[in-house]
Amino acid sequence: MTRRSRGWLAAGTAAVVLLTSGGCLGHSNDKWKEPTNGQTEVLLNAEAGHAGSAGSAWLGFDGAPDGLAAGPDGRVYGLSASLVVIEKDHTAKSILDDEVHSAGGLMLIVQSENSFVVGKGGQVLRMQADGKSFVLAGTPGKSRKLGQPVPETAAAKDYHFSDYLPHPFGTRPDGSILFSEGDVIWQLKAGRLTRVYQAPRERNAPGKSGRAVIGDGSAVDQSGTVFARISADQTSEKLGEVVAIHQDGSTAKLSFPPRITGVTEEPAALDVTWMTGDDGNGVYVRAAGHLVDYVFHMASGKAKLVAKAPHRTSHSDCREGRSVDSLKLPCPMPWAVAYSPEGLIMAGNAPFVLKVATK
């Protein structure tokens, strides 16, 4: 299956450690202190050499993320070659290993501690902690062509998706599962697919492929509005191209000011790497500039800078138990971000997991 994320599953996921079978990474709670608003704390550091961890465990943080979420139980879950959970005591353990190989999910949707929704092999699956899986949508066979018009609704288990791996990323208030595949975002409920959005064809655009696609890391807020990263050239998604898709089907570009306090670059030109909905009608956006990485909170046309880090920083100052100013992160900013009522979780392409306090 074609996949445009920046790395392969086995390279690692944001939220968790890539563990050998039975491995565990963690540290004493004595070092942990909940960050306060404006502060960031290291939730886990894979380079700390904890007892019981595999020698190469930090590689689980070093690749492009495949899944990152805070479950309804408040624990942090991540997906790569393994599905792993970070417990309340800040230890990490593997839940599923071989069963989720070549699975994707941005995020995998955590329904409970025993139920996870992932995309795998052209299908959307519900997987249990005992390794059992159930097909929710998609059927093997001839894939639809990118750009081919899709029906407004279809039987979920009979539908042929595109060559792009389905990426479950959230649920709407009525419990419908949302996922993207190629140029389409679908809503899944009671065995039926409903088209939420299909990216328009980009015509006569110099240097473009002629077909826009949905980028990794779409999001949904508590009101059911979906935020999608749109790429016209299938290489990068700009903040100015993020689309908000409302429950009634209406769409609009994500609204934000032309300038944001604390940002010297033009916001619309920043590359978006990941998004996560908030507990209201807004979205957190992780974006990359030429020299600096950012996290913004955007809602009702306003934007607030939440975290900031220059590209060239050292890992040495990202130590467990140390709170730092979120606008002056002393270590590289992880790739992905997930909302939790207790604070944003950040991980991926870095050997640590961060917790960013927003309240």
Structure commentary:
This protein has 359 residues and is an all-beta fold. It is 0% helix and 38% strand. It is built from no helices and 29 strands. It has a five-stranded antiparallel β-sheet, with no helix packed on it. It has a five-stranded antiparallel β-sheet with strand order 26-2-29-28-27, with no helix packed on it. Strands 11-15-14-13-12 form a five-stranded antiparallel β-sheet, with no helix packed on it. It is globular, with a radius of gyration of 19 Å.
Overall mean confidence score, pLDDT: 80
Strand order of the largest sheet: 1-6-5-4-3
Our count of helices gives 0
Biggest sheet architecture: 5 strands, antiparallel
Order of helices and strands: EEEEEEEEEEEEEEEEEEEEEEEEEEEEE
Structural class category: mainly beta
What's the topology here?
Elements: E1 24-25, E2 39-45, E3 67-70, E4 76-79, E5 83-86, E6 92-96, E7 103-112, E8 115-120, E9 123-127, E10 133-137, E11 153-155, E12 167-171, E13 177-181, E14 184-189, E15 192-198, E16 213-214, E17 219-220, E18 226-228, E19 230-231, E20 243-245, E21 251-253, E22 271-277, E23 283-288, E24 292-299, E25 302-310, E26 323-325, E27 336-338, E28 344-347, E29 352-356
Antiparallel strand pairs: 1-6, 2-26, 2-29, 3-4, 4-5, 5-6, 7-8, 8-9, 9-10, 11-15, 12-13, 13-14, 14-15, 16-19, 17-18, 18-20, 20-21, 22-23, 23-24, 24-25, 27-28, 28-29
